[in-house]
Design brief:
This protein is mostly beta strands. The protein is built from four helices and 24 strands. The longest helix is centred in the middle third of the chain and has 11 residues.
Length: 305
């Protein structure tokens, strides 16, 4: 996946359809997720509803603490103007950051392995899930030396597992990335191949290609360009629910009446628009990718090519 080394930083992330007041300032301490994935809960207990997850190195604003829990906002997953609110275990956060965070690689595979040394037989230091952004400072052969939050020693990730160039996404790009999560089990609030929900699948695929959408399906429905069913193209987002004020499901259109989604029944896999429930609840599409690209044949799974 190494496409020519360049600094790939926050400037490559385009926020689509910011909600009103999305630049609101919040006084808080800035931290970073220090583990591969950290769950965010609606209240300070792991028995509460999981509302989302933060990935390694993701920016977190800490608003306060209660016992072992931190009250947080995730700015890149906006639910409110300032970010996605919730509670995260404090031990999953680090206040230490390296000197540079503007030069990063983006994990482009379902699971990237961070090793102790730049060789494939080296012990595993950590793993990083699809869409994680890892700061790096040196390229040695086919390996990037990356920093890990809260650790003095660096790690190494192979160039085949990361993207180094930010380019506008086309529909085919979004689908190829989303297919990497095929057969991932469904998990409410999930954001990784360990478990993911429908809006997490869409959010992750878009983030890999530099597009930041809202985290949840109802707000994803508010961004992009509206598309009628007859005009759907592969890579368009398709939405479902009882009415436009109550969106409860989203997927990525594959073509030929098929879409890729995550559901409790089958995890990440393709579904049909003419399925009885889908047909009854379909509310339209949104386009968030660039025009004029070459698309995948409708419904084709890149892994099968």
């Amino acid at each position: 996946m190494h496409l020519g080394v360049q600094a790939l930083g926050c400037a490559c992330l385009t926020v689509l359809g910011c909600l009103p007041g999305a630049t609101a300032e919040v006084r808080a301490r800035e931290a970073r997720v220090a583990v591969s994935v950290a769950s965010v809960f609606a209240s300070p207990t792991d028995q509460a509803e999981r509302v989302t997850q933060g990935l390694l190195w993701e920016r977190v604003l800490v608003l306060g603490q209660k016992g072992p829990w931190s009250r947080v906002l995730l700015p890149d997953q906006y639910r409110t103007p300032a970010g996605y609110p919730g509670w995260m275990l404090s031990r999953h956060l680090s206040l230490d950051t390296p000197a540079r965070l503007d030069q990063v690689v983006v994990v482009g595979v379902a699971r990237a392995v961070v090793r102790v040394q730049p060789r494939p037989d080296s012990p595993v230091l950590s793993v990083a899930w699809l869409s994680s952004r890892l700061p790096w400072d040196r390229l040695e052969g086919e390996w990037f030396r990356v920093a890990l939050p809260g650790r003095k020693e660096p790690g190494w990730v192979h160039e085949s597992e990361v993207l180094t160039r930010c380019r506008p996404p086309h529909g085919a790009d979004l689908l190829e990335t989303a297919w990497r999560l095929k057969q991932t089990p469904y998990l409410w609030g999930g954001m990784t191949p360990l478990g993911i929900d429908c809006s997490g699948l869409v959010y992750t695929a878009c983030k890999v290609h530099g597009r930041l959408l809202p985290r949840d399906a109802d707000q994803q429905f508010q961004v992009g360009t509206p598309v009628e069913e007859a005009d759907l193209r592969p890579g368009d987002l398709v939405f479902f629910g009882p009415d436009s004020d109550h969106i409860d499901h989203v997927g990525l259109y594959l073509g030929e009446g098929l879409f890729l989604d995550a559901s409790g029944r089958k995890g990440v896999d393709q579904s049909r628009l003419d399925d009885f429930k889908a047909r009854k609840t379909f509310l339209g599409g949104r386009r968030v990718f660039c025009e004029g690209e070459q698309e995948l044949p409708g419904g084709q799974d890149p892994a099968a090519r």
